[in-house]
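Our collaborator T.R. sent over the components below with a one-line note: 'Predict the complex.' Nothing else. No constraints on interfaces, no templates requested, no preferences about which chain binds where. So this is a plain run: every listed entity goes in together, and whatever single assembly comes back becomes the starting point for the next discussion.
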Amino acid sequence: MPKVTIDNHEIEVPEGTTILQAARMIGGDIVPPAMCYYSKLKTSGGYCRTCIVKVTQGSAKDPRPMPKPVASCRTFVMDGMVVQNTTSPELLEARKGVVEFLLLNHPLDCPICDQAGECDLQNLAYDHGADTTRYQFERRTFEKIDIGTKIKLHMTRCILCYRCVKVADQLTEGRVHGVMNRGDVSEISTYITNAIENDFSGNMIDVCPVGALTDNTFRFASRVWFTKPMDAHRNCTKCSGKAVLWMKGEEVLRVSARKDMYNEVEEWICNDCRYENKSVSQWTIEGPRHISKDSVISQNHYEHIDLQKLKLDINRQIKFQGGKQIEEHYSRAQFEEESKKALQAAKK
Amino acid sequence: MLTNRSKVVVNKKMTFMERIYLPAIIGGLITTMKHFFRKKTTIDYPKEKREISENYRGQHVLKVDEKGAERCTACGLCAVSCPAEAITMTAGERTKGEENMYREEKYAAVYEINMLRCIFCGLCEEACPKEAIFLTDRLVPVSGNRDEMIFGKDKLTEKHFNQVDISKRQTPEVLAFKQQKQYQHNK
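Returned assembly:
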């Protein structure tokens, strides 16, 4: 079993593990970002180069460093390999360059885009990107088309990660869309509108890291951070039926698959679940979906109340009011018990 | 005891002078009369208006561009930044032929500010990526009805031929920033 050191964290991994997978086994801040790699899709990765890392020691046998940053999603670990990600300033600088390239032709239409708020590229640019662009030429533009009856394709936003192509290849039979042309004129297309009909084609929307493929039934319905994600399931003959309902009040605005911490789909869902069942009565709701606290969606603070923080707040207020008085009539224990009761009522 | 201003009430018997009340009443009237000859502290609004500061934050305006198309794209950043949660909106998709009405493919079909909730902090203006919403030096008209205080697009959007001047809200620094060529893509 090869041993690899990533950002000073040592881990032993099975043979044939990539650096990115090893980093994900360690977890935390040292995991390189990935735009095209998708652990659930075979042969994905190697296109976007956001996951580049610096290999300062190739292996125990051959300790020479690799001459250039390597794509961690496609590089296998060797015994005694030493990898730098966040600890190398020049690597971070190189990644900044990669992000600048990804954003060359990407329009600045986040205020319009339905993906804004849960967009991988938005997060990536925010964390690793430069504030400005040096590009002075016209951006390439495309007409938006309906690639399937329920899927809208904004080719201008696409970063050519090939994830949707892999989904069509590996989940459905008979892929009808792909990447046409070469170089800077390459585009995702079917050349025929409304061509994608397959039952699992909706998953293309979920794997798209940007807003290139969006749900037509959710188009401009609401911004994601005004909706509340709820875990729900239903009996479905085609798929697991486990999904996330994005609700506003009692209304289900959108249904999507459940995604893990790396924004990857846990279980694929079928188009029936995604598009056709948009009323609460058709689903069994399990509870609010946990969203990372850094996400703008958690701005909605729909989930749970942070007990620890609330207690601190209450104590601070008591102190501010000259706490002694309250304690005379009202013991601290009594007070805490009552606030707990109120919280439980609020939770329900 | 919360403050040291409280007085202890004593139920003592009043003297004759106190019982006839007249000196107290005359004393009160003298105070009232004095005020007749003082400078007034109130003004006769709306005939007269108080002087306000240059960057006064009053009623909002939804701007239109030089061609008269609405700038707002219903991105929701004003609503999410609003600490009073006074702003709500519903987006609509622009259809063909509406290009001179709305600037981008998405627009605010409904845009409402609850003026009773608004605290005029100006964060919506700061959050707006499209320079669509500004606070102006206009005062919000009062109303005896709560429903009337929810301002929709009819009250907020400016008319193309009668644009509201917001040049004072844009500092020279902001205008200089917009001149720079490398930020042109932000248009």
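Summary for T.R.: The two ends of chain B are 61 Å apart (CA to CA).
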